[in-house]
Amino acid sequence: MNQQVDIEKYLEEFRAEIGQLNKTVKDLSDDNARLYRRVEAQNVEIQSLKSENNDLRGRLSKYEDPQPPKNSGNSSVPPSKESMGDEIRRRTSSLREKSGRNPGGQPGHEGNTRKMSEQPDETENIQPNYCRECGRELSDIEGVEEYREECVGVRIIPVVKRLRFLKKTCTCGCCNRVEYTRRKNPVYLSSGIRALVVYLNIVMCMPYNRIKSFLHDVMRIDLSEGSIRNFIERAGDKADAICDRIASELVKSPVAGADESGFYINGKLNWAWILQNPRLTLTWIAKGRGAKEMDDRFGQNALENTVLTTDRHSAYFSMKVKGHQICIAHLLRNLNYLNDLDRNQNWSSRLQELLRKAVHWRNTNPETVDDTTTWTKSLDRLLNENLDKFKKPFRQIRNSLRKLKDHVFLFLKDPRVPSHNNASEGGIRILKVKQKRSGGFRSQNGAEDFMAIHSVADSAKKNNFSRWNAILALV
């Protein structure tokens, strides 16, 4: 007997089951969305951790595979930026090879001894006053010189000189006077004091406040910083005209050296340039370190007849000059870094040996013109070696020298050309001393005056004149 099926009941159960499945699907969809968001967040965190891991690995690598620090002995890093440890090592090491000789004067060297003056300013007799045997007073007995010596001292005292302008009336009744101009303040400082102020600031790199303290403590002269600035400004104005004459002579020089260095004026970076030869020095301020700065100072292609000795800064090789000589001393320092970077190779030491031999040949043959073919072939063999297994700095120096190989041995062809640019570096180093002692310059005019006066003083020194007398002439 067939039973009647209640379709509504099954439909209701089916609907309930469908509803439960929909709820389950929704819950699963929500869970999937939550899991997706969690995975995305974890991916972000993983990327952050990977970046942090790479950074930590990089910081750790210098301890696992340490790179030698760069200092003034193996790079162009100035001594002022060296660590204390590097400074100590620099002072106890040198680029020069040991000669095996004892330090000091060598046998046969003619020494220099201070000689006694013919007319001493003072004489003091040191003599016994009483007899050591009988006790008699000896003041009435004239002494006989047994030994003499001289003590060289100095008097640092102001000398006040009063200038009296007199008038004279002739018997004819005419009143005669000398020409003079009444000063606002009839008490003024002599040219010697003004020159001392300029000398202390320019040559000794003393800041204004220390000059002021020195004059007060040692000479009992009170001077304001404004007066110090005025003295330097007036000397700078006179030095500017001399610098123009120095510039006109330098462009005629067959050989010159150039360099540039950054320094600060009122907290802003500027560039100091130098062009010099064995007789003249010129320093000036520029906004950059490009080749146009040289053209702006001397004129377009003004050095086309000059051989320029420089470092490997690219700006110099875009200038129109007669020839280039790169600084071998710079190169030897850079090769020192490669020696420290990989002590298991000898490529850099062999290149150093080649350069040292060339410099030694020039030092022992100062007037000889050499054919550089053999030297260049030896250099080519070194530059053509495969350096792929070495670190990047090796290939950087190799590639640089490939471009500049024609400028390595020019000093062997022309005895007038030095193998180094030390004179330019020395002429501009005073700015680093000034910056270290005074913290830089506070004004553009002050920096320009410093450059001009230094140019005159250094040129005087090169010509065996006293820098003091040169500055005395400016004030």
Summarize the structure.
The protein is of the alpha/beta class. The chain is 48% helix and 8% strand.
Assign the structural class, choosing from mainly alpha, mainly beta, alpha/beta, alpha+beta, or little secondary structure: alpha/beta
Spans where pLDDT lies below 50 across 5 or more residues: none
State the separation between the terminal residues, measured CA to CA. Answer: 140 Å
- Alpha plus pi helix count: 15
What overall geometry do the principal axes of the alpha carbons give? elongated
> Roughly how much helix do the residues carry, as a percent range?
40-55%
Strand content: 5-15%
Count of beta strands: 7
Average predicted confidence as pLDDT: 88
* Neighbour order of strands in the largest sheet: 5-4-3-6-7
The largest β sheet comes out as: 5 strands, mixed
Order of helices and strands: HHEEHHHEEEHEEHHHHHHHHH
Report the C-alpha radius of gyration, rounded.
39 Å
Q: Based on the structure, what is the oligomeric state of the protein chains?
A: single chain
